[in-house]
């Protein structure tokens, strides 16, 4: 089978074809390795692992022949370079980790490995997952494979999981892992025209994931379809005794839960998400989404989440505070890069000053400030109270509706560097995604159309805690109605 044909399969169809003997996992992996090479101009991967991939694929073929395979067996995936991978360099897109090679495997990557997934490499991201555009990476920005109809400027794939989203959109991975702290799965998914899920906080283990903000970070999948995302999420989920925040809920069959339609569901539309100066394209895709779910049999009702506009300032106090504490361990003593100084304090200062990038240093300083004596009550403690009120808003609304429907982002992908000099403008990219993160709720972004420049736009569905089944089912309804089949420029057009 031609390489271009192999790359058209998604997880659901590829797993069926592998078990039918239409092609092998090695053949599928070789096709994706060709695609990885063809897409290097997008700077998607920090570390490529072709030898490991072929070895993984050969083992997958053995499992398939023995009848012991799962739907993830033989699937070539990208792994966000925030997940520790035993024997494979893990950088968090930062110079401070140097050539760190973990002697252990994160729980999520171990689950995928045990299911037979094939590791193509470690994908690019914003440094320590801090950013909304993938431009803070120490290894240069990943580039969105989409382009504007009348423009040739390289576009951001979103952040922080931009490399993972770009890999799936470009056809350089059949799926990929990401982490979402304030929108870092959903925003890149929307910018790249793919599906991305932030599960309920605690659904997927954080053990072995380089920490940004521990009370917010949550691993999740990127995929081409809602069904694929459900398949991958089921493998990634589950209780982990090594993670004190890991939930004990059983992992349901997420793929089965997407069936059944949405007839009879009540879907809330929060009025506070209609922000000032909302672009017409965003308002139009939101209205189109409402029409889609109504036509599918759901009832749409207006709801109010009064604390919504307080979510972003609260997030940018809580997240930097936790980052300040988590990143204190990177001091040049135990592991990673060390820059010598005249004394111990000088070594600390030089290592952290040169090892961390500008955005990470900014967030560490903000976090240290809001945690300092005299400011803790005024900022951090107040932000935590606001966070509680935001969660209470959601609790109140979910007494009357099954899920919420909103835009994923306030706009489409923008040119790389466009907002670099205005951190506030960059932070506003998270205005629709942060509230669900602060409340620990599951949320999914599904591609639903394009803007006037031909760039993808996503719709976000937010659900009750541990009710990923409902948002997946609603996501499937939107996917079926939208029939979003547009793809970015074909990077592998010359591959035979």
Q: What report would you give on this structure?
A:
- The protein has a domain at about 5-260 and about 410-480: Amidase signature (AS) domain (Amidase signature (AS) enzymes), CATH 3.90.1300.10.
- Helix content is about 40%, strand content about 10%.
- It has 17 helices and eleven strands.
- The chain has helices at about 5, 10-20, 25-40, 50-65, 105-115, 160-170, 185-190, 225-235, 255, 280-295, 310-325, 345-355, 360-370, 375-395, 425, 435-440, 470-480; strands at about 45-50, 75-80, 120-125, 175-180, 195-200, 220-225, 265-270, 300-305, 405, 445-450, 455-465.
- An eleven-stranded mixed β-sheet has the order 1-3-2-4-6-5-10-11-9-7-8, with helices on both faces.
- Helix 5 (about 105-115) links the parallel strand 2 and strand 3 (about 120-125).
- The protein is globular.
Low-confidence stretches: none
In total, the number of strands is 11
> Number of DSSP helices?
17
Q: How far apart lie the N and C ends?
A: 9 Å
| CATH-level-2 architecture of the domain at 3-259 and 412-482 | Alpha-Beta Complex
Kindly provide the name of the CATH class of the domain at 3-259 and 412-482: Alpha Beta
Superfamily at the CATH H level of the domain at 3-259 and 412-482? Answer: Amidase signature (AS) domain
Say what oligomer this is. single chain
| Average pLDDT figure | 94
Content of β-strand:
5-15%
Topology:
Layout: H1 3-6, H2 11-20, H3 25-38, E1 45-48, H4 50-66, E2 76-80, H5 107-114, E3 118-123, H6 162-170, E4 175-180, H7 186-192, E5 195-198, E6 218-223, H8 226-236, H9 254-257, E7 266-270, H10 280-295, E8 299-303, H11 308-326, H12 344-355, H13 358-371, H14 376-397, E9 403-407, H15 423-427, H16 434-439, E10 443-450, E11 456-463, H17 468-482
Parallel strand pairs: 2-3, 2-4, 7-8, 7-9
Antiparallel strand pairs: 1-3, 4-6, 5-6, 5-10, 9-11, 10-11
Helix pairs in contact: 3-4, 6-7, 11-13, 11-14
């Amino acid at each position: 089978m031609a390489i271009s044909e192999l790359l058209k399969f998604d997880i659901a169809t590829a797993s069926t074809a592998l078990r039918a003997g239409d092609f092998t996992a090695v053949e599928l992996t070789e096709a994706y390795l060709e695609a990885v090479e063809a897409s290097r101009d997008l700077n998607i991967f920090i570390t490529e692992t072709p030898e490991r991939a072929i070895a993984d694929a050969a083992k997958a073929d053995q499992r398939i022949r023995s009848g012991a395979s799962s739907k993830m067996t033989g699937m070539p995936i990208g792994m966000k370079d925030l997940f520790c991978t035993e024997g494979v360099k893990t950088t968090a897109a930062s110079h401070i980790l140097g050539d760190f090679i973990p002697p252990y495997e994160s729980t999520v990557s171990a689950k995928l490995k045990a299911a037979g997934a094939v590791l193509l490499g470690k994908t690019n991201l914003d440094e320590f997952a801090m950013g909304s555009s993938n431009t803070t990476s120490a290894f240069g920005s990943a580039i969105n494979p989409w382009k504007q109809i009348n423009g040739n400027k390289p576009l951001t794939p979103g952040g922080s999981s931009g490399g993972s989203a770009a890999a799936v959109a470009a056809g350089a991975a059949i799926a990929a892992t990401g982490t979402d702290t304030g929108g870092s799965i959903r925003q890149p998914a929307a910018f790249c025209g793919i599906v991305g899920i932030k599960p309920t906080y605690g659904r997927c283990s954080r053990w072995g994931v380089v920490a940004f903000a521990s009370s917010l970070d949550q691993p999740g999948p990127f995929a081409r379809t809602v069904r694929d995302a459900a398949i991958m999420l089921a493998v990634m989920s589950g209780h982990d005794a090594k993670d004190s925040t890991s939930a004990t809920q059983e992992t349901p069959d997420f793929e089965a839960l997407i069936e059944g339609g949405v007839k009879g569901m009540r879907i809330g539309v929060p009025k506070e998400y209609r922000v000032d100066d909302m672009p017409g394209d965003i308002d139009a895709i939101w209205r189109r989404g409402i029409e889609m779910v109504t036509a599918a049999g759901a009832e749409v009702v207006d709801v109010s989440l009064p604390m919504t506009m307080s979510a972003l300032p609260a997030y940018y106090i809580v997240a930097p505070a936790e980052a300040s504490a988590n990143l204190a361990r990177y001091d040049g003593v135990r592991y990673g890069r060390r820059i010598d100084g005249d004394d111990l304090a000088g070594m600390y200062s030089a290592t952290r000053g040169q090892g961390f990038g500008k955005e990470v240093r900014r967030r560490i300083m903000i976090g240290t400030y809001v945690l300092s004596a005299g400011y803790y009550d005024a900022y951090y403690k107040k932000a935590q109270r606001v966070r509680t009120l935001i969660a209470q808003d959601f609790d109140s609304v979910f007494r009357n509706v099954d899920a919420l429907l909103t835009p994923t982002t306030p706009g489409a992908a923008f040119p790389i560097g466009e907002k670099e000099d205005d951190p506030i403008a960059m932070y506003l990219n998270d205005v629709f995604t942060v509230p669900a993160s602060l409340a620990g709720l599951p949320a999914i972004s599904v591609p639903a159309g394009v803007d006037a420049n031909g760039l993808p736009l996503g719709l976000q569905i937010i659900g009750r805690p541990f009710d990923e089944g409902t948002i997946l089912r609603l996501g499937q309804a939107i996917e079926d109605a939208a029939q979003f089949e547009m793809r970015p420029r074909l990077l592998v057009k010359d591959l035979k």
